[in-house]
């Protein structure tokens, strides 16, 4: 009996002890969590970072739609602070004011044809991951040298280690690289650069004018894209401030902007449109100004560029090559019949590039962009595409195309088989239009154009393509049989270049992106893995040919065997475009999905509206 009682007492005490210990452990756990949260709050106050998405209503009552694609870890979040410029361009009167004639199209965005290939079975294999890391390392090397030697300057001189002022002194490389920093998940550098960008002073320049085109695609486009990706309100505020300055460029008697925004002329009200300006300049502002209206609700920007769109639509069949616009246009008199040269290269390129892209950005609600694109591409396929004459075995392996120039002459249209690195963007343009408008032949043309540029890289000793080159073209249509003609080759071809080439008229390579741009886009559109191998071959060649002690430089001659001559130039598009496209082609396809984003001509991705 006593032993039974003692046993009961022992186990009762044991259970009581366990309950006390459990309660004590619980209290210690709660106390530990509370202490951790208190420390975290003291180090990173919950109310200090900007919200990832700005939810404040816009002037029209709607809300911004920025959606971060890559969310930084909380400890990498930084507060981005906006600092206004010392001069407010909204205080300057418009000398040729107009009412709002155009507003963003209303209604639900139309369902669009898928642009991106179905990658539902995609696997990010180790080889591709290592290639992605290699591109990122090249970007970091370039960026770190810019930070050390040219911070806040427009460009780094990658041989001498100096800074350059080439675009107003407003940190072109810094702003241009913002979205690349975000995409590559370089969070600390992104927030460092974002704070610098958000405090730029557009009044602080030694220049008397700003290039409307370059400032729009690099600075305005870079700020808008960085906002679309990060949701940082300060970047949109700075973009709006710049948009207000650039909007003054439209203050001319006919609301057509000139090539330059001359600051004093704008204030005095004496600006006029040009009489012999590159067609791409005023006609490639649409994507950026439309996106600015979409994000701010201010319809002035969209109204301004739609007046140019109306001009293009009205004059498309009035040129000497109906369906296209010439290299140079008389915007003051709004005439397109004074020039005989037509191209998809320098002077005109992004005019055509933006037609299908505007269709995508507006959710298919503005049919004139599809109409103009179709009409222009009909002319391009008839008069400008060409096939290089290649030896039989080479032609079997490479079914490629290039796009040349066209000249309107009294006796007909002359096609010139001259290629440019700039025209390599056309592969992506044909592909995008083909996908959006369900033109399968155009996707095939786009792939052949993209592969043609990849082939041209491999054709030179450096593995890099020149700025401008001429080819021995096949006789007749680009889609007709093209037998090798040894006599024609001996008469027209260059003995110093690979068979198919007549000359390398401008043998420089200036770190351009257009070839990898189209190869990336066609990979994302078709899912053909060999395009990635082609891209890697190009990347390795570029790095080998352009590397300096500090970063990477443009070179003077791609035809040399052995060391190349560096020209001490590293334009901002090296970080904004070239390396971004190389990184993306080796990234998982959900990073900047083509059905969610559309790129401006400086590779800045803008969010597309969804149905």
Give a verbal description of the structure.
- The chain is 44% helix and 8% strand.
- It has 611 residues and is mostly helical.
- The strands form seven sheets. A three-stranded antiparallel sheet has the order 7-10-11, with no helix packed on it. A three-stranded antiparallel sheet has the order 12-13-14, with no helix packed on it. A two-stranded antiparallel ribbon has the order 1-2.
- A hairpin with a 2-residue loop joins β10 and β11 (412-416).
- α14 packs antiparallel against α15 (440-458) and α17 (514-526) packs antiparallel against α18.
- The termini are far apart.
- Residues 1-27 and 35-67 have low confidence and may be disordered.
Structure at a glance:
This protein is mostly helical and 611 residues long. It has helices at residues 2-43, 126-150, 172-176, 178-183, 187-197, 212-230, 233-247, 263-268, 286-296, 300-315, 349-361, 368-383, 392-397, 426-436, 440-458, 486-492, 514-526, 530-546, 573-585; strands at 155-157, 162-164, 209-211, 260-262, 277-278, 328-329, 341-342, 385-386, 402-403, 405-409, 412-416, 418-420, 468-471, 501-506, 597-599, 605-607. The strands form 7 sheets. Strands 7-10-11 form a 3-stranded antiparallel β-sheet, with no helix packed on it. A 3-stranded antiparallel β-sheet has the order 12-13-14, with no helix packed on it.
